Amino acid sequence: MKKLANQLLALFLIFPPAAYAATAYETLAGAAPAPALSLELPEVAPAEGRAYGESAVSYTARNAKKLAALAGKLTQINFVDGGMDGQDKYFYWGAPSIVRQVSPAQTGLIRHWTSNAVVNGTPVVDLIVKSGTLKAGPRPYIIPESHRADYYQDLHGVFFTTPDFRPGDLWMGLQPDSDYVDFVVDPRMGALYLAPGNYLFPCPLKLPEWLAAEYRKWKASGGPMPSDMKFTFDQIEREGGLQDALDIPVTVVRYQKGGKVTVLRPDLLAKPY
User: Fold this and answer.
1) Burial class (CB in 10 A: 0-12, 13-18, 19+), 160
2) E runs forming strands in 33-179
3) pLDDT for 239
4) In Å, what is the CA distance from 50 to each residue of 137, 157, 158, 203?
5) How do the domains of the chain map onto residue ranges?
6) Residue 147 phi, psi dihedral angles, 5° rounding
7) Distance of CA 105 to the CA centre of its chain
8) Backbone CA torsion sign across 157, 151, 109, 189
9) In what order do the strands lie in the sheet with 251-257?
10) Which residues pair with 251 in a beta bridge?
């Protein structure tokens, strides 16, 4: 039990407990009014709509269209009070009104900053170049400000930007010499424009295995939803249950590592699509 409690605490910022749920709808600038919060579980997606074994092209195209249709339809589902000196956190279903579906050809050359991250001693930029794939992270789309942060729980997957967008405006602590990968993807893939310089390839919700195991245990038991898991399990249910992980296949055109730029496909620099 102590181990599970520590795991839940570590996951707090990604999947906060429902005990902090707000009781009223919070309207963001530019957001359409939404109905009052419902205490009922969200409708479960039909099995045929799930992404088991689905290709990146099919999944991103289908879900980019679905998520774009949620633009301006926001329902606050959670709130964490940051206190006098902290950052208040608001959590939503839906998408900001500015969100829209875009095609890779509209964005042109795509850039993913790795923040100089390292996995098991290997720089992430090397892993991407070697594998030709990008993996989704666990966090949803977040709009941060000094006093608050808005978390959009439906918007998760592989985030990207464009080479001409200033890295300092991405709230990632990036420097011009930080590691990045520039690439192109299958032009049939679906993507979302989130805000200037912010784009998303939607992917299935990424969970640590221990949390997925807790969800399976609950579903197999047929019992009531554990109160300390409600926030996370509601999101899983909203998305149709657990889904296979989905990597985004890419063609690396250029990358920067340790401040040094290497061009692999000069032909695609001039004409990405």
Assistant:
1) buried
2) 75-80, 88-93, 100-102, 110-113, 118-119, 122-123, 133-134, 141-144, 148-152, 157-160
3) 95
4) 19, 15, 18, 12
5) 2-27+70-270
6) -110, -10
7) 21
8) positive
9) 110-113, 180-184, 251-257, 260-263
10) 184
CA angle 216, 217, 221 (to 5 degrees): 115
Q: How far does Cα 60 stand from its chain's mean position?
A: 12
Which residues are within 8 A (CB) of 238 and not within 5 positions of it... i.e. 6 or more apart?
A: 42, 43, 44, 45, 93, 154
Please tell me the distance from the alpha carbon of residue 224 to that of residue 241, in angstroms, as a whole number. Answer: 16
Tokens of 150: 């808005």
> What are 136-169's pLDDT values in tens digits?
989 999 998 888 999 999 999 999 999 999 888 8
Q: How far apart are CA 28 and CA 72, in angstroms?
A: 9
Each residue of 3-23: pLDDT tens digit? 444 444 344 444 443 332 332
* Amino acid identity, position 81: D
Q: What's the mean pLDDT in 236-263?
A: 96
What CA–CA distance (Å, rounded) separates 197 from 85?
29
Query: Strands, DSSP E only, in 68-205?
Result: 75-80, 88-93, 100-102, 110-113, 118-119, 122-123, 133-134, 141-144, 148-152, 157-160, 180-184, 191-195, 198-202
